[in-house]
Amino acid sequence: MTSIGYRLKQERERGGKTPREIAHAMQIPLQTYYDLEDDDSLYQVVSLGELHRLLQALRIPLRNLLEPSAVLAGDTMPATNFDDVRRALNAYLKERSRSVEQFEDIVGWTIGGFLTDPAVAWDWNIDCVRDICRELKIHWVALLSNVLERPK
Question: What pTM was computed for the model?
């Protein structure tokens, strides 16, 4: 199994880009970018906004970086944007008579003002999205592919 960092480096080299160019495009320090190529911290360290800039700079789909099992792993409901997630979350809270705080306790993440401003999700990382989508029964890879592979 190939690490995410290794796949990232392969894609960067295939695209003829330097680490400095990609770090600049992502708007992160060069050392942080090197750390991404050296380990599998992409899910925890990079915000969705930074990941979006990375995919745009490399001109690749998200699936090129993910484990094949993640791409195949599906939940149930497709979501094409953060508004779909917001609607699903509102429905979840209403159906289960839960508060936002209770949902945050369940998923282990603070979702902030997401219900009023879905653009807040651009500050989340992949682990956060995956955990929220798992609880909402949303296919997280499909969601991120739809959101991240379009112009922002």
Answer: 0.85
